[in-house]
Structures are given as C-alpha cells and as structure tokens.
Design goal:
Blueprint lengths: L1 H17 L2 E5 L10 E2 L10 E4 L2 E3 L22 E5 L7 E6 L10 E9 L5 E9 L2 E10 L4 E4 L9 E6 L13 E11 L1
Antiparallel strand pairs: 1-12, 2-4, 3-6, 4-5, 5-12, 6-11, 7-10, 7-12, 8-9, 8-11
Length: about 190
C-alpha cells in the first residue's frame, strides 16, 4: 500500500512539473509580402521573444527561395527566417523573458520544423539556461521542411540561439546560410 502511494505521489509530482505543451506556428501573424522584422513580437507565448528574425508570407513574396514552402490549401503560411540575401548576420535567438511574476520563466524545447531558405546549409543551435551553456548541436538543412527534435536533457532553457552556417559548395564565393521556421513545440516551465 505504501509503495502504491509512493508511486502515485511520484506520478502526480511529474504531472504537475511537466507543464503543458505549447505549439507555435505563425498563422496568426499579419500577412507580409516583404520580409518584416519581428521586433520582439511575442508569438503564442507572452514571454517568448524572437530576436533578429524576419517574418514573411511566402505565397506573397517574390523573393522567396525554394525552402519557403507554400501551403497549397491556404497559399498564405507566414514563416520566420534568418539569413540568406536579406541579412548579413544569419543568427537569431528565441528568448524567454519574464515580465511579471508568476509568469513562466523557462521552457523545454521539444521540436521545431525547419528548412534552409535558398540552398542547403547547416544550422548550429545553442541552448542556455540563465546565460549558462546547456548544450550545442548542429543540424543539416535542405530546402524541404523537416521536423528536428531537441535533446530531452534541454530543460529549463531561457534562450536558444540559431546560427546558420554559410554554404561552402563554392569555396571561393560561399553563399550566406539561412533557416526558415514553420512551427515550434515547447513545454513551458
């Protein structure tokens, strides 16, 4: 009996600690026919900010590369991106900023759907918890959107930094790297 109560208590504690999963896409963003700075516009999570990202609606933008997928059912799926010919610095970050207690102060990234915007390249992802390095990983991106999973050990994160590597297919004239975000799944802590 004591063992069952102990197991039940453990399960309840895990459930209370787990937090709810939050799915973020950019369907609620205004349509944009040209790349527009996010300007710290919070999307879906009131304390989550997107620093140095641009947003655009690919079906409306003539400069979109092959990695800017257009949803055939809507023609207007707004996405975020960094890099390519539109930014000299292909680095952006997702930051959790607490404005008023008792708001959520950390998150656990679960997955993200990404592609490169114009040509295949890599992206380095670095996770921080209150300025302390948690980990770094590298994903190879193509112009086809794909779901990427974050390590399960990346809990209580306050910032994710994405750095798109330049494509070195032509070593003499490397092209700028890019990254397009379609959606992001996280757990608020």
């Amino acid at each position: 009996m004591k063992r069952n109560l102990l197991v039940l208590g453990f399960v309840v504690a895990l459930a209370l600690n787990a937090g709810a999963q939050t799915y973020i896409d950019f369907s609620g963003m205004p349509f944009a026919s040209v790349p527009t700075p996010m300007a710290n516009h919070p999307a879906a999570v009131s304390n989550l900010f997107w620093d140095n990202f641009l947003y655009v609606t690919p079906g409306m933008w003539h400069g979109a590369g092959p990695g800017f997928w257009v949803d055939p059912t809507t023609q207007h799926n707004t996405v975020l991106f960094i890099g390519g010919p539109w930014q000299s610095v292909a680095q952006g970050s997702i930051v959790m900023r607490v404005q008023q207690p008792p708001n959520v102060s950390t998150f656990q990234p679960v997955s993200i759907t990404l592609s490169s915007g114009w040509i295949p390249n890599g992206v380095v992802v670095t996770a921080y918890a209150n300025s302390r390095l948690v980990g770094t990983l590298t994903w190879n991106l193509t112009t086809t959107p794909a779901i990427h999973q974050f390590p399960a050990t990346w809990t209580n994160i306050t910032q994710l930094v994405f750095t798109a590597d330049p494509s070195v297919a032509n070593a003499v004239h490397p092209q700028p790297g890019s990254m397009v975000i379609y959606n992001f799944l996280l757990i608020e802590r």
